[in-house]
Amino acid sequence: MLQRLSSLFPSHSHPITLVSDPDRLLAGETLITELTRRGFQFVEEDDPVLLRHRIEEARPFTLDQPIILTTTGALEDLPYDLYQSAHRIKLSLHQYFPNLAYPVLQTLHPDHIEKLETRPQPVQPLSRQKTIEFLLREIFNADLLSMRQPHALITWLNDYHHQFSLLPDMLRNSLVDRLNGYSDYQEWNIDLLIQDEQAFRSFVQQEWEKSVEQSISGRQIKESQTGYFIHFECDPQLQDLVPGLVRRGTIQPLRIEKQISLPSWTRTGVTLVDARLQRLSTLLEDANQQICVIKSDLQVGRNVWKELALTWAELCSMILQTDLATDRKQKEDYRNILRDIDPLFTTWLRQNYTALGAQRLPTPHHVHHIPHYLSYLRNLGKLDKVVLLVLDGLSLMDWQVVSAVWSQRHADWKIRTDLVLSQIPTITSISRYALISGMRPADFANDMDQRISEARVWELFWSRDGVAEAACKLLPLYYDRQIDQLPELQNPRVNFWCLIDDTTDKLAHHATLGTADQQSSLRLWLDPNHHPNSLPLEAQLDAYLDQGYTLFIASDHGHVEAAGVGAPSEGLVAQTRGKRVRIYKDRLAALRVQNAFAETIIWDNDGLLPDQMSALMPEGRNAFAPNGEVVVTHGGVSIDEVIVPFIQVTKESKL
Question: Which sequence spans correspond to the domains of the chain?
Fold first, then answer.
């Protein structure tokens, strides 16, 4: 299918192509990247005013600079002047998968469709249920027969929770119904274990500890809190899973005080030393393997980089723990990974950043896609009241620390984390504004001093979706000050909240001793014995969940520890003078500064920034600051600054 779809868009054939794509066949990452490589620019915009703006901005359309205008509606509904002169294409899943039930196919994500295209297709038409079973097997590796055995189900869940590929509701419900029919799972909450990674991890960890303690004592130590069990001690196939569960971090090795006689199957899941050291060694190995994969194929998809970003964030968090006795070899391995990761990521970004910015639905790739994603869920009937909490400057490493504490403190919160790309340059005035407004910087950054407020663009976004302005509100939070905001936060008329908390950004900028200082301050903020702390924020979020709001948490950018290499003296030429980025309206001005600072890169013409804007950024982990000065800052294109968490939190009772 990929080859057939791409053949519809030959290079240098049509200046403008209109595509009716109700099933979003053009939204797959591989296809978008290929068409972008051919020179196509994608335009997708539901609002007619913004559509006209995007079209005029893209002119002139030529054979060398063609555009693809996509819509999920009818081509006849597009502006007549475009319809009349354009090449027109209509796409449908029916064309490519005629033997699969269409209503089931419609639930799939574009990346699922790309994967389905590589699988052998049925030669006879399948019913709805048979289509579901086919897709579960071919796309999600869920073999219903083998999953009758607990070891197969645990293996599948462990793999599933390390992929960025969620089961559509229809397929998940069918899988849960089928598994609930097996006798071994009568007491299992299968749906919870599929939907909540933390619940799955906690369950496996608890059962592992119980099995080891039983092996040590020869008797059952404690009853299961869940009412269902994993019998490691009497199932060799479950025992064989232990090394993989430990490697993935699903099982944290149980520390034992002294060398004792234990069955051989327990060895990889117990340790005589600090379990963190064992985990650190695993993370270093995983990061090296992931980087080797990327070096062998620089065209890897975004999910490979998401996986590495998670590994890297956990690795950095452990390296920064001052009470962890890392050895010289571990520190050297860490420095080697650090040396490789940023240049590789910058190369990948230059090749894929624009393409991923083109398709904002059905899942967000960039921060400016997030409001559109919330609107999409609303129109699907999946939510009617929203709280979007923007934790300004929250890095992925920060979120791993925060989520661990919040998950423990709020056992009834179900937290699902995805990753998106910050707006480059990764400064608050651009990336946070893009996140809140749903717009690219090209739509608002021509004059940074004259644009409307964040509160107003939040209202305008939802007003275009038919929501009354009185039902939308943006509010900065001031929990660190003696200001009572509770009456305002409890306004019953507001259904679409955007709350801004800049605590994490402040902690970064005030960290004069580097990232270790910042991480220490973050842990103090999470400590209920310290004042101020995160408890008032958590209480307010919990109250919103109780009131039926759907909670999303987003970050506009991360941060990085950088060393000063000197600061340019460009007078009034630069629009901004950050430590990780300088922004210029004149590219020649950026080039002149680059001549004096050779180890810098210029970022511009990415399809998201205004045409006349150029961003000059230091390479690696350097900063425009006095030589040798250590700062924690943001603005550049390191993996720590660009890949940020996007979280959904729901609240439901757990077993």
Answer: 2-95, 141-269, 277-346, 359-559+641-651, 561-633
